Fold each of these.
Amino acid sequence: MRKKITLITGASGEIGDALIRQLLKDGKTDLVSLDIRPLAPEITSRITHIQGDICDRSLLARIISEYEIDTIYHLAALLSTRAEFTPEAAHQVNVEGTFGLLQIASEQSEWRGKPVMFIFPSSIAIYGIPDLVTKAKFPHIREWEWNYPRTMYGSNKLYCEMLGIYYSEYFRQLASDRPVMLDFRAVRFPGLISAFTVPSGGTSDYGPEMLHAAAKGEPYACFVREDSRIPFMAMPDALKALTCLAAAPREALTRRVYNVTSFSLSAGEFREWVLKFFPQANITFAPDKKRNDIVDSWPADLNDHDARRDWGWSPDYDVNRSFDEYLVPNIKMRYQVKS
Ligand code: SER
C-alpha cells in the first residue's frame, strides 16, 4: 500500500521552511518535501526530502508511484521582481510546474476516489490598478476587482488560480463519467514578513529588508516612495491562513480563491514602526521607478470579508503585535541585538 502523505513544494523557501516547522510542531509526521535546494539542516532528519525540479515530470511520476498524496501545499514559485528578469524561467516554474502538479493531483484524486486537497498561495500581484488616483478610490479590493496583473508573476498566479478551479470543477465536463476531482483552495497573500528569513526576488521585499537591516545595524535605502502603500502580514498568520483554509469543511466555502490580509502600511509608516524599535536605524528612500510602478499597481489593502465569513479567518497579529511580539523579539535574538 502507498503511504499517505502531505507534499510540500518550495520547501526551502520562506513559506515552505516556516510551514514545515509548524506542521512538525503540530505533530505531523507524514510530510514529504520537494525543492531544488536542500532543506535547512535542523529539519532535514525529520522529514523525507526530495531534492529536484518541480518541472521534472518523471520525478513527479515517481512520487505518485510511491505515495498516496492526500494534501499538497504547492509553494514553489519565482517571485515578482526575479520573474521580470527571467520571464521564461518564471513561466516554466510558476505555470508549467503548477500545471504538472495539478495533473498528478487530478490523477490521484481519481485513482483513490477522494479529492486531493491542493493548497495554493496566490498574491496581491494578481491585481493591477492603472494609476494612483484609482488606487485611492478602491482602498479595499474584493477578489473579483482589478484582476489585471502587470507582472509575469501576477499573471502566472492568476492563471494558475483559474487552472486550479478548472481541475476542481470542470475537468472532463463533456465526458459522461465525471471523475472525482481535486479540491483546489487558494489564498491571495499580501506582502509577507518573517522574523527568521529575508525574502528574495519579491517586490514587497522593502518591508522585511528595512527591518532586518535595522536589526543588523546596516543602513537601508528603500526602493519605493514613502507614500507607496500595500498590505502586509506576519508569517505566523500566513501559516494560519494556509492551514485553516485546508481544514475548512468544503460545504462552508463559497469560493476557491480568498483574499486574506492583516495590516496596510505606507513605506513611510513602515519606517516609523521600525524606528520605534530601532531608533538608531538609518533608513532613507531611493525609489526605483520601475519597481515602484509595480507596487503602485498593487492594492493599498484587501477586503477579506469572504474568508472571515466562510472559514472564520482573522489574523492573530495586527501591526502592533506583529512588531512587538513576533518580529522584533525574534529578529533581535537572531542578530543578537542587545535590548
Ligand atoms: N511578495 C510577493 C512579491 O513581492 C508578492 O506576492 O513578489
Amino acid sequence: MDEKQGQYKVRDLKLADAGRRQIEWAESRMPVLMKLRETYSKTKPLAGYKIAGCLHVTKETAVLIETLRAAGAEISWSGCNPLSTNDEVAAALAANGVQIYAWYGLNVEEFYWCIDRTLDFKPNLTLDDGADLIFTVHNKYPELAEDIIGGTEETTTGVHRLRAMADDGKLVYPVIAVNDAETKWDFDNVYGTGQSTLDGVIRATSVMLAGKNLVVAGYGHCGKGVAMRAKGMGANVIITEIKATAALKATLEGMQVMTMDEAAKVGDIFITATGIKDVLVGRHFDSMKDGAIICNTGHYDCEINIPELEDRMATKRTIRANCEEYTVSGNRRIYLLAQGRLVNLAAAEGHPSEVMDMSFANQFMSQVRLVMAHKGEEVLERNKVYDIPVTQDQEIASVKLATMGLNIDKLTEAQYTYSMDYAAGT
Ligand code: ARJ
C-alpha cells in the first residue's frame, strides 16, 4: 500500500503509468466530457470550490475527476464499492496530485475510513454514487454541511434514498438527481448495464450464454438492458418481477415471466437487478440445479442473501477470480460471482466509456449548476432533490450525436405550427 497523509492511499503508485494509458483510452471515447473540459478549463467556474466524491474509481471516473479539476475544482475522492476500484487508475490519479483514498478489495471499515479522509478537507460539494458520502456527512459530520452548497447523485438506489430523506425533512442541502436525466438512465442503466453485466459474468465464468436459462430479477431499466442483451446472445431469458406492468412488458418483449420460486428450479444463471434485498434466499438455493451461477448487478450486495447460502454450505472454494463454488445439500454446486457485489464493476470494468460519457457530462454540468446557484444564478432550497433541466438532456444528446457524425432533421415552421395546433384534425 502506498500512502501519503492528507494526499492519498492507493495500492501501488508504480501502477500509475498503466493507469494513465487507460485514462487516455477512456478520454478518446468520451468526447462530450472532453468538450466540456475544453470549454470550462478556460472559464474555470469551479475555482475555489472543493468537491468530495464517492464513486467507483474507474478510468471513466478519472476523466470526470480531471475535468472537474480542469474547471478549477479541488478534489478528494473515494470509491463507492469495496470491489470496484481500478488500482492502476487510482495510482495515476494520486500521481497527478488528486487526493484519493481507494484500493480494490478494501473491507467495510476501510471503506468508511476512506470516506472520512475525503471529508478532511471540508468540501463545499459532494458527488455520490449510492449516497454513502452524503449519509456520512448527515449522520457523522453534520457540522460539515454548513459549508456544503449541494450535492449530486449518480444512481437509482441513491436517488431513492435521498428522495425518502427529503420527504422526511432530513436532507440539509440540495441534491441534483443525475440518475434521473434521460441521457443517464435511458442509456447508462439500459445499454451500459446490459453490456457490462454480461461482460462480468463472462469474465468470471467464461460460460456460453446461448441456450442457457438466464434469470433476470427485476425488469427496470437495468434488468431490461441485461435481458435484452442476453436474449441477443441466445439465452432463454426468464424475468421475475413484483410489478405487474413491468412483467407484462417483459412478456410482450418475448421473455418468460414467472416467480423466483419457479425460476429457481430451472435457471442456469441468475442475475439480480432490483435494488431490493433478499431476492435470492435460502429456499431458492435449496431448489437450484447443480451448477447454477448466481450474481448481482444492483448497487448493494444485499440482493442475494449470502448468509443463508453460507448456512447451507458444506464446502467452499475459489474456482477462479470472482467465482466461488459452494456445495450445498444433495452435492449440488452453486457458483457465487464477485461475492454478490455488483458483478459488472467487480468482475469487469463497469459500463463502457462511450455511455459513461453522457452520465458524467450530466454529473459535471450538475456540479457547475450548484456552483452557479451559489454565485446567485438560481435559488436552490436546502431540503430538496432536483431534476436536471430538460434542455441539458437535449444539449448532451445533440453533442453526442454530432461526435458520432450523425445528423437529425429539424421541424419546419409549418410543422412546428401543426404540432402546436390542437384544432387540426381530419
Ligand atoms: C464509473 C460506473 C461505471 C464506470 O453510472 C453507473 C451507476 O449508476 C452505478 C451504480 O453504482 C455504477 C455506475 N457505473 C457503471 N459503470 N461508474 N465508471 N465505468
